[in-house]
Design goal:
By secondary structure, the chain is α+β, with helices and mostly antiparallel strands. The chain is built from five helices and four strands, in the order H-H-E-E-H-H-E-E-H. The chain has a four-stranded antiparallel β-sheet with strand order 2-1-4-3. Helix 2 (51-68) packs across helix 5.
Length: 176
């Protein structure tokens, strides 16, 4: 009998504590309820970059990777996310081929760096993972010319921060 009463008291205390925690969460404002005045990342889509531009972005990224001794896969896509050019450095991780393309596709389709998706997940905004073609890993950067999105570059095969460094080197050729 005594154990039964103790169990009931402990369960009641646990339920009260859980209820209080839920009430506190309910009182906190949801950051997703904020309505911005302007559309974020509202870069207009432009015509696709040329093959020469795509290859120049890849060459700049690969040159930086070689300088640092990193082996990566580098992909460049058009504004719709279709592959224009790709290079796999000698010894680059095979599993990262598709990831480099995925990062480039997400950066182009959503007109923002994939680091933003990574930050969202790290800050508990998990719904972002329900959106089509998202990858929550840095290393995808939009390519903009004349204020219009003409494609994106994606890198994979190293750490996310290393991938991002190489993408920025490649994007610097276009994003001037």
């Amino acid at each position: 009998m005594r154990i039964r009463v103790l169990t009931i008291v402990m369960l009641s205390a646990a339920m009260l504590t859980a209820g209080a925690a839920c009430a506190q969460q309910a009182q906190q404002p949801n950051p997703l309820d904020v309505v911005p005045d302007k559309m974020p990342f509202d870069i207009p889509y432009g015509l696709s970059m040329s093959l020469d531009q795509a290859q120049a972005a890849i060459a700049a990224g690969v040159a930086e990777a070689k300088k640092r001794g990193w082996k990566l896969n580098v992909a460049v896509v058009d504004p719709g996310g279709s592959l224009i050019a790709f290079q796999r450095m000698d010894g680059a991780q095979i599993g990262s081929i598709a990831i480099a393309e995925h990062k480039a596709r997400a950066a182009a389709k959503y007109r923002r760096e994939t680091k933003i998706f990574e930050n969202a997940v790290q800050n508990g905004i998990y719904y972002i993972l329900t959106l089509d073609d998202i990858i929550a890993s840095r290393g995808g950067i939009p390519l903009v010319e004349g204020g219009k999105l003409i494609g994106a570059i994606g890198c994979s095969g190293a750490t996310g921060s290393q991938d991002e460094v190489i993408c920025k080197a490649g994007a610097a050729v276009i994003n001037r």
